[in-house]
Amino acid sequence: MTTDHTCAVDSGTPCGACRRSKALRRFAMSITAATVLGHTVLGFEQAYATPLLSVVAAVCTELLLETVEAWSRRRTPRYRRPVGEAVDFLLPAYIGGLACAMLLYANSRLWPTLLAAVVGVCSKYLIRVRVKGTARHVLNPSNFGIVTVLLLFPWVGIAPPYEFSEWLGGWADAIPPLVVLVLGTLLNGKLTGKLPLILGWAGGFAVQALMRGELTGVATLSALLPMTGPAFVLFTNYMITDPGTSPWRRRNQVVFGATIAAAYGVLVQLHIVFGLFFALVIACVLRAVLLAVLSGRGRGSVPVQRREAGRTGARPVPAGAASGAAGSAAEAP
Questions:
Q1: What's the CA gap between 135 and 61, in Å, rounded?
Q2: Is 146 within 8 Å of 330 (Cβ atoms)?
Q3: What dihedral do alpha carbons 77, 83, 85, 90 form, nearest 10°?
Q4: Is 271 helix (H, G, I), strand (E, B) or coil?
Q5: Are 246 and 333 in contact (CB under 8 A)?
Q6: 107-166, pLDDT tens digit by residue?
Q7: Cβ count near 272 (within 10 Å)
Q8: Model-level pTM greater than 0.85?
Q9: Where does the record place the region Disordered (predicted)?
Q10: For 272, phi and psi rounded to 5 degrees?
Q11: Which of these, 66, 109, 223, 284, is most buried using a 10 Å CB contact count?
Q12: What sign does the CA torsion over 46, 47, 48, 52 have?
């Protein structure tokens, strides 16, 4: 399937919409493959119906809210655009549904996962900050849905890390995180321009682990060990790098990543479980407050793509282009 527009022929590079489309579709293919392999090869323990129904719930919610918003603003719903654009519009909801199904575990119950998918999509429409006259969603959708369910229902947990290699053995256990690491790095390096964010997050995580080891007596190796697991790699490459809810300037990306790491360190020290997901919400809320303040003072802005491409050496996807996962490379994760 191709996009329904033509790039400028004199630029020699794909336009922002094409990069966004490519990032969305590659991530959709990646998370689809991961879901299929997880349930057939790796050892995912959720019911087979979980990802299917989660996607249906997310997409239906997206269609409903887009219909209402389009009606209220007297514009054509985005799902009625040409086929390629309509598919790209629905892909973030599809990705978010699969991300919630992959990361949450509610035993035999399906509805907590469906609720997370629905809440994630709703957050895109209900929680926004106006920047330079444009309302932008500021919370990573799938991450926010997951956190909401974890807070409302303490008996729901995150999928255990061992399920990413439960049916493998020996050296093969290292294959899933390595594959995710390589594919995620390529995706973020070439399409989303989020490598500075990843470096800020990974470096900040290592620093907080070392500080906790020095100041609190926690075994430093144990504090660093989560960095080797598939859950950390997924979170790093596909959740915090959500283009719509993370900064574009290289410096701001590093600060955002370090903020997530600092929040995680505090949460873990306070013995709060699922710190990765709560830390990302905290960082997104702090960024939203900052954007609102700067916008109120007339300073809030979204960097020009060309300028940012020159700074990062990548071709970033336009802000607000996609929606969170395992948010994701394209609103993912």
A1: 19
A2: no
A3: 70
A4: coil
A5: no
A6: 889 999 999 999 999 999 999 998 877 888 999 999 999 999 999 999 999 998 888 888
A7: 12
A8: no
A9: 304-333
A10: -95, 120
A11: 284
A12: negative
What's the token pair of residue 308?
Answer: 């940012």
Helices (H), the chain: 16-37, 49-73, 83-103, 111-126, 141-152, 175-187, 195-216, 220-224, 230-238, 250-269, 275-296, 305-312
What single-letter amino acid sits at 119? V
d(CA 80, CA 172) in angstroms, rounded, equals 45
In sequence order, the 6+-apart residues with CB closer than 8 A to the CB of 315 are 13, 14, 19, 190, 191, 193, 305, 309
Whole-number pLDDT of residue 326: 41
Structure tokens at 163: 């399920």
In degrees, to the nearest 5, what angle opens at C-alpha 57 toward C-alphas 22 and 77?
60
Say if CB 24 and CB 91 are below 8 A apart.
yes
Rounded distance, CA 223 to CA 34, Å?
Answer: 27
DSSP symbol at 314: S
Specify whether the backbone of 43 is left (phi greater than 0), alpha (psi in -120 to 50) or beta.
Answer: left
Q: How far apart are CA 100 and CA 58, in angstroms?
A: 10
